[in-house]
Design a protein that fits this description.
Layout: H1 2-14, H2 16-26, E1 29-30, H3 31-42, H4 48-60, E2 64-69, E3 76-81, H5 83-106, H6 115-120, H7 128-131
Antiparallel strand pairs: 1-3, 2-3
Helix pairs in contact: 2-5, 3-4
């Protein structure tokens, strides 16, 4: 069971920029909301030392922008997805779906598919749908 958690963590870490952009497609968020949402959705904890530098990189690339919300009891930097970020996210999701299809097509799963093989096949819809409710 420990191996499964390790695989989930590695996959989530490798796709963390995409996960952040998907979350921001749903609604603007501050960093702590992002950390909480990722943990709730994926069962993996990425702390501030992982999330904030990544969000700064995404902002430098023009994929997200931030504004200070000073109306709450504690001022927070709130991040929003830009149109460039949405275009990048759509391209990445399409590329990832294609990769999953190719992996599924090249696997030696014959007529007697196991439950594990069925679970690994790519979904018919975009990967964003199961990760984040729109």
């Amino acid at each position: 069971m420990n191996d499964r958690k390790e695989v989930q963590t590695k996959l989530a870490k490798g796709l963390l920029d995409i996960i952040v952009l998907q979350n921001l497609r749903t609604k603007p968020m501050h960093g702590y909301q992002m950390i909480t949402q990722i943990r709730k959705s994926f069962g993996v904890y990425f702390g501030p030392s992982s999330i904030y530098p990544l969000m700064a990189q995404l902002e430098q690339k023009g994929y997200i922008r931030s504004e200070w919300n000073v109306e709450s009891e504690r001022p927070r930097k709130v991040y929003k997805l830009t149109s460039e970020g949405l275009a990048f996210l759509n391209f990445t999701e399409n590329s990832f779906n294609l990769l999953c299809q190719k992996i599924g097509a090249s696997s030696p799963v014959a007529d007697n598919q196991s439950q594990a093989a069925i679970a690994l096949q790519p979904p018919k819809k975009s990967l964003a749908t199961p990760m984040i409710k729109r």
